[in-house]
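Figure S7 source data.
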Amino acid sequence: MVKVSKFCNLRCRYCYELHDLGKRERMSLEDIERMSSTVAEHARLEGYELVHFIWHGGEPFLIKPAFYREIAAIQRSVFSGICKVRNTIQTNLTLLPEGFLDLVEEGFFEGVGVSFDPYGSDRVDVRGRRRDEDVIRNLQTLIDRAVPCGAITVLSRGTRDAAVSTFRVFDELRIPHRFLPYYMSADDEQRASQALTFDEIRQAYTEIVDAWLDSKNATTVDPIEEFLRYAIDYLRGDLNPVFDPHTDEFVFIVDVDGGLWGVNGAYDPEEKYGNIFVDSLAQALRSARRSRLVEQIEARMARTCGVCPYRGFCPGKYAAHATAEERRLLDDHGCLVRETVSHILRRLRETGLDRKVAFGPRHDTAIGA
Ligand code: SF4
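Tokens for the predicted iron/sulfur cluster complex:
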């Protein structure tokens, strides 16, 4: 996940980058070439088949398409003969430059992630105005041009009550969607006004599960889709490998200055693995800080997952990847995944679908239809 620049035209009130959104610094093409070479070398040594770059911000559409075309040229030269490369972009979609659509047609961008709350009022621009009409118009353009897209809605104080309505909007449009409970904070004041309690998130997940089961379209909605897979594997007795933090970490955050973190530690200096513009990935992954974090992850997984009936059906990624906000919830209240899987199993038993999924084809999640 590459933070190409923090600069953004919005000031969403729950954004964990809130204090940096006016900064205009961005990665140079030389930085990106260094990062690409480092990643390509690691991919070659490890025999990876695919590397996926998510271009993130700030708002990455504020950077001209020509910049991304230069990145495409760098990737062609650096990754040639090593592995496939996939590029997607995460945007607030208040802007949709025509040149971006050209980059989709040229095959550089394979998809677009849209951050949007259809019912919230916290996604505002620098003047405090909502930009929903721009987003809806641009989303329609993506749909009309058949650009693969997905959406993310932050579950926060302002969106929680509309969780089911939000699910229905994207379900109706058949756009895969993810709910992301507020999980990283910019400061204490923001946390106090935006963070949800354990019970509020559990209740929202429960309502979304029920709405999904009730839906004719049953469009993919994460993280429910993922939890449903764990529930099905539990019913079938299909064990999955438990997440191993030594070898299975596969999402990394790269800051504008090359700082490298795992998903649970950004931007804590104590949890920084290294700098991808300077260090090799092997060096960063072997760093003393990461070794200490791996030990903490193993202890947390033993504490949380060790007593869980779904361990092995659920690989424990939630406990492993938990951010500081999520660790607070885990320590004080337990695991939201466990609670939601239990709810899914209850619903499957009530409806008799448990027998269908237990003996049906593996990972057939089209049971809502
Ligand atoms: S405690 Fe949570 S993360 Fe761990 S195995 Fe159980 S459901 Fe999964």
